[in-house]
Amino acid sequence: MRLRVLGCHGPYPCAGGATSGYLLEKDGQALLMDCGSGIFGQLMRFTDPAELAGVLLSHLHYDHACDLLVMRYYLEQRGKTLPVYVPPEDHSPFRELLSCPAFDVAPYPEELSLMGLRITTLPVRHPVPCRALRITDGEKTLVFTGDTNDCPNLAGFARGADALLADAAFLSGEWAENKPHMSAAGAARLALEAQAKALYLTHLPVTHDPETLAAEARNVYPGAQAVFPGLVIGL
Ligand SMILES: [Zn+2]
Fold first, then answer.
1. How many structural domains are present in the chain?
2. Which CATH number goes with the domain that contains 177?
3. Ligand 1 geometric centre to CA of 37 (Å)
4. Those residues with Cβ within 8 angstroms of residue 215's Cβ, 6 or more apart along the chain or in another chain
5. Is the pTM of this model over 0.70?
6. Containing structural domain, residue 78
7. pLDDT 10s digits, 153-193
């Protein structure tokens, strides 16, 4: 597996940048995790969106899903329909906007098989229904937390992940129990408890130097790094 970071900011991108979006490639196939602002244009640099095996949405906040509304036009012109998986608990107006011939929108089943990968999900702690994703090819495992504050079951869900891609939107001094995201240090505590083999910080606010966030994480989990557009994580 190979994970390519297309965008990693939240809740809005930097100049010329993109919010949440990651391309997961395996054996010449690819699926897209999240499709936030600016992601469609980034995706076009690497693959034909009409050839994706599917789209996995952690949740339907606009910084994770809005570019699907533009991808729709492309797919309609190509006469293609993509499977799009969403949290089963979501009944938002945005989900209604995805009801069109370009998308076959379905709730995550208990276990999803796509591209020979086994994909399971966990409800996490965010103001709207959101799922963490655990994706394994039988040898290597990627866990993406989606958007979440500290969440009791997440360490068990992420147990032994080869790569943990974790929401780290706050410095410790900004974080609070009622916030919608973890801090970088919280992500690092999660990685430590889950015994993850590598920690990648994402959902980075454009107002912060990513290295400041990474440094806070490294105080807890040595080796933690902030992702950036263009980063390719080999698994
Ligand atoms: Zn969100």
1. 1
2. 3.60.15.10
3. 13
4. none
5. yes
6. 2-234
7. 999 999 999 999 999 999 999 999 999 999 999 999 999 99
